[in-house]
UniProtKB/TrEMBL annotation:
Residues 3-105 form the NIPSNAP domain. Signal peptide: none annotated. InterPro entries: Dimeric_a/b-barrel, NIPSNAP. The lineage of its organism: Bacteria, Pseudomonadati, Pseudomonadota, Betaproteobacteria, Burkholderiales. Gene3D superfamilies: 3.30.70.100. Pfam families: NIPSNAP. This is NIPSNAP family protein. It comes from the Bacteria.
Amino acid sequence: MIYELRTYHCAPGRLPALNARFESITLKFWEKYGIRQVGFWTTLVGQSNHALTYMLQWESLAEREEKWNAFASDPEWIAKRTETEAQAAIVERIENQILTPTAYSALR
């Protein structure tokens, strides 16, 4: 099992739009493609409160590549994402890490 940690750094004031997009649009597409989330977090204390961090769970890098690419290229998803950003961009930058648990991790 591997985990993907992604942090989306939002434009000021746009975190509510990103949360709404995940809740009402993105998660439905992830379900369609079998993308499994571990959890989502906002920053309570830290460098910025304009960030959304989430973790995904994958069986392998091959599974990630197959499912993520299918999701990212879905024409309906692209249209919905574009629609949510019609007035202004939501995400300024994304940080992404692929993690593998240690032998003593609770998540294995």
